[in-house]
Design brief:
alpha/beta, Methyltransferase, Cobalt-precorrin-4 Transmethylase, Domain 2, 2 domains, globular
Length: 254
């Protein structure tokens, strides 16, 4: 591990045991830890050095976060910037990486388990079921943050792919309304709140009733909305283990 450097650590979906070994080592050895307190499970930070300086970034602006990291790195300290899930998905990480580079600070990104894979695990689901979907779309409902032209939910829904909708539990009625024309009212849907946390909550239904169920449970944040036939019961078996299917490691037989 190198001083004068910032390590972006994907903290995973919540369960501290789902933090990568490398991410855990960086957190334990860091002199300065900047973490998203509104999203990161505090247990992920356990084991940090007693004299490590901890900063909750939930109330900080980008310039403030950058200043903390730059000052620490220039002082020869190891800096851990801890993000929930994986930093590459709705992590606002690019602007931090570019900001550090502009100030001459080296950085490294340690990937983490995303909430969309954790949610699938909680549901015992597979996004890429043969005969159902071989495509997964990660997206969000437009709100205060706009989406580019051609990337609205209604447009993306035309592919009828397995869909994981982030940051939109508070807009779940709009999500359902946008998706029904392409997916139909009876397509399976689920909401997974705080996947892998002790208070994880799972709701299953269809696009017709999933919004009502979520509202009745008081779910309006820290939740994923999942939609698609992959949540149903009908699918084809994989060719990978089909005894009649040949591939590079096995000869097929009738």
């Amino acid at each position: 591990m190198k001083a004068n450097k910032v390590y972006f650590v994907g903290a995973g979906p919540g369960d501290p045991e789902l933090l990568t070994i490398k991410g855990q080592r960086i957190i334990r050895e860091a002199d300065v830890i900047v973490y998203a307190g509104s999203l990161v499970n505090p247990e992920v930070l356990q084991g940090h050095k007693k004299d490590a300086a901890l900063y909750d970034s939930s109330a900080l602006s980008l310039p403030e976060v950058l200043q903390i990291m730059v000052d620490a790195a220039k002082a020869g300290k190891i800096v851990a910037r801890v993000h929930s899930g994986d930093p590459s998905i709705y992590g606002a990480v690019r602007e931090q990486v570019d900001g550090l580079a502009a100030r001459g600070i080296e950085c490294e990104i340690i990937p983490g388990i995303s909430s969309f894979t954790a949610a699938a695990a909680a549901l015992k689901a597979e996004y890429t079921l043969p005969g159902v979907s071989q495509t997964v779309i990660l997206t969000r409902q437009e709100g205060r943050t706009l989406v580019p032209a051609g990337q609205s939910l209604a447009e993306l829904a035309k592919a009828r792919a397995s869909l994981a909708v982030f940051l939109s539990a508070h807009l779940i009625e709009e999500v359902a309304t946008a998706l029904i024309p392409a997916y139909g009212k009876d397509v399976p849907a689920a909401v997974v709140q705080k996947a892998t946390w002790p208070d994880q909550k799972i709701i299953r239904g269809t696009l017709t009733d999933i919004a009502r169920q979520a509202r009745s449970e008081g779910i309006d944040r820290t939740a994923l909305v999942l939609v698609g036939g992959f949540l149903g019961d009908r699918y084809q078996h994989s060719k990978l283990y089909d005894p009649s299917f040949s591939h590079g490691f096995r000869s097929g037989r009738p």
